[in-house]
Amino acid sequence: MTHRGLGGAAGAVETSPPPALTEVQASGLCDIMLRVSGVRIDAAKRSFLELRVGRRLQATGAADFDAYLAHLRGPSGAAERQNLAEALVTHTTSFFRERAHFDWLAQEGIDQVVASGAGRSWPLTVWSAACSTGAEMWSAAMVLDQAARSRAGGLRWAVVGTDISRRILQRAATAIFTEDEIEGLPETFRRRYLMRSRAGRRPLYRIVPELRAQARLAWANLSEPARGPALTADIAFLRNVLLYFPPSEQPMIAAGVVGRLRPGGYLVTGHAEGLSRVPQGLRQVAPTLYRKEGP
Asked: What is the reported pLDDT for 121?
């Protein structure tokens, strides 16, 4: 005999949700997250953890949080530990977020690094160290392209975006955004740098091919800089990232990024965070702005 649940399909089997996440389980998940990614998650945020990790229980078929933790800690849990890290990282971004940094880039930053040879002897490279869906990287690309158009002889440039989440990098690689996601983009930039899709009820926008050709996306874990892609940047955006790491780890994270800056290059941090200890060879020149000293 076939049974139907309320509104369910024939043969559907009702399953009970896993028990609520305990304090011990939450601490265990956060400890694993810290070891895998270097990112600190507050174990007191049990509702957030239940929601995000509950999806991983469904994906893996784990019966409950204890079974899931056992899998994470087991010899075959490496891939799922990475999935956990991706599930718990929060990806908040927008075009021209903290606009003052992009104003600095357009008005001063590009000139400063061009004076050292960037854009002529080598491509002027801006690195978005935690790029999420790419809005920060594309915002920098638009500023660089405008600068290139306004200079005699043009300007060689490139942008690089890295992130710990392979899933979000796949999304970033499409360079496609919704109407809500381009809310902070000035109209002149929309007309020049976006293509609008005419299909579907809700419009979608894609970054123009000219900008996409200048971009590279790669996986990177900022707490393990040796495993990241080979790159040397003139300007690195490390914004609204350090606050996710324990204070004791923040200097190491910053130093790993600074190690990939050219001498004379700049590190840009978020307005809501600062470097408790400035890495050696780096000099603060303005709030949230640091310059790497020469050899």
From this structure: 95
How many Cα atoms are found within 13 Å in the side-chain-facing hemisphere of 173? Answer: 12
**CA-wise closest residue to 25 among 69, 55, 57, 86:** 69
Taking residue 13's Cβ as centre, other Cβ atoms within 10 Å add up to 7
CA distances from 138 to 83, 212, 235 (A): 26, 9, 14
Q: What is the pTM of this model?
A: 0.75
pLDDT (tens digit per residue) in 197-239: 876 678 899 999 999 999 999 999 888 888 888 999 999 999 9
Which tokens go with 47?
Answer: 């509702």
Beta bridge partners of 218: 162
The one-letter code for the residue type at 228 is: G
Instruction: Tell me the torsion sign for CA atoms 269, 274, 276, 278.
Output: positive
Amino acid at 245: F
**Coil, strand or helix: which one is 57?**
helix
- In whole angstroms, give the CA distance from residue 156 to residue 124: 6
3-state secondary structure of 95: coil
Angle (nearest 5°) at CA 113 between 111 and 115 = 70
DSSP codes, 175-218: TEEETGGGTTS-HHHHHHHEEE--SSSS-EEEE-HHHHTTEEEE
Q: Where would I find the H helices in the chain?
A: 23-37, 46-60, 65-73, 78-88, 99-104, 110-114, 135-150, 166-174, 187-193, 209-212, 250-258
Average pLDDT over residues 5-17: 43
- Give the Å distances, CA to CA, from 169 to 11, 42, 133, 184, 273: 38, 25, 7, 21, 24
Least confident segment among 56-65, 152-161, 243-252, 276-285: 243-252
Contact 282, 250 (CB under 8 A): no
